[in-house]
Specification:
Blueprint lengths: L3 H11 L3 E4 L1 H18 L3 E6 L6 H9 L3 E4 L2 H9 L7 E3 L6 H10 L2 E4 L2 H13 L5 E6 L29 H10 L3 E7 L9 H18 L6 E3 L20 H14 L1 H6 L2 E4 L3 H4 L3 E13 L2 E6 L3 H4 L10 E4 L8 E7 L8 E9 L6 E4 L6 H4 L9 E6 L2 E6 L4 H5 L5
Parallel strand pairs: 1-16, 2-3, 2-9, 3-4, 4-5, 5-6, 6-7, 7-8, 8-9, 11-13
Antiparallel strand pairs: 1-10, 10-11, 10-15, 12-15, 13-14, 16-17
Length: 413
Amino acid sequence: MLSFKQISAIVPIASSPFYLCDDQRFAANFDRIATAFASQWPNFILAYSYKTNYIPYLCKIIKDKGGWAEVVSRLEYDLAIKVGQSPAKIIFNGPVKSEDDIALAINNGSIVNVDSMDELNRIVQFAQQNPDKQIPIGLRINMGLTDSGGASQIQNHLPVSRFGFDPKNLSSDICHLISRNNLKVISLHGHTSTAGRSLACYQTIAQTLCGIAETYFPDTVEYINVGGGIFGHVPECMGFGDVPAVDQYARTIADVLHQSPWAAAKKPALVLEPGIAMVADVLTLITKVVAVKTIKDKTLVTVDGSIFHAKPTMHTRNQPWECVAKDDAGRPESTFSVVGSTCMEKDYLLTEVTGPLPQAGDYIAIGQAGAYSVVMTPPFIHPAPAIVVPHGENFKLIRSRQLLDDMFRNYSF
């Protein structure tokens, strides 16, 4: 962790709060995940989930290591191109793609995973305008995920996922439409945000995709894409309990492919689209303590960052943290909450944690701040923080703190 002296040297160029980005850990996470999966299924592709954190500096690491980009918007697609990613190594997911998006991605040789019949009809129209060209596409498959008791394992325990095609409709609707046009299904995509990220969910996803490939597209499918959402490194303090290791995910998914007669014979590429597992532990929020007060026996430590910077999804778990003191004076042990700089009552970065009580002028470092924090931070009350990476004995600014002109350039005055 940074010393107070190091933080003090960074603040003049980055201001507070700022993010410390561990690019070496990001690269190590790539290697760890890729090695685990490739050891179980050699034809493996890691496609980094841009939506989780699209810092260009990190996206370029993915490109340089031979990884792919998984994008869900034209914004992210254009960014992937801008950092030098080969279009042939871009997977275009998401429920909303314009006709221009579809044409660009297909003409570039990217994989377009189709989410709905309306989107498929737009691709059919494109195919009919290009009758001499066979159009490769992917299909996103809607997953039904339940536990042994029949309870939904979809995110927030929703009764049904809102993405993809119902497998029951493949034979009656989709396959007929595809067969009547110059389309070829080369990818099956099964990403589903799960309630618990359990091994059983990924087993079901892999089994469903292999079964559909064998039944409907045995000669054309080249990619079995199980999506993302797996656990990465999870600190014990976050209270998730026993979580599957990357090796366990790899074995569970690969075992399904080995046991599938179709997959064992065809050897499709296994695609994983990790986001949280790649980047959650890569960013640490450094934020300055501005006040400490006690109200009705509750001690509150106010900092110049906010919940949006540490956990924009507003989950209730405490992330790993550390107080970086301004001096050598002892800090008494106390139970306190760290609250942010906005005017929202629920702006709690840490809730009822126990440790050395920070003082005004100290800094608090909050880890596991890499997932969604950068991409979901709104210009709410305060501008977006700067991002720095270690650079030899010094630090390099890879995103400047947002300024007024950055925030209001597109407004009319």
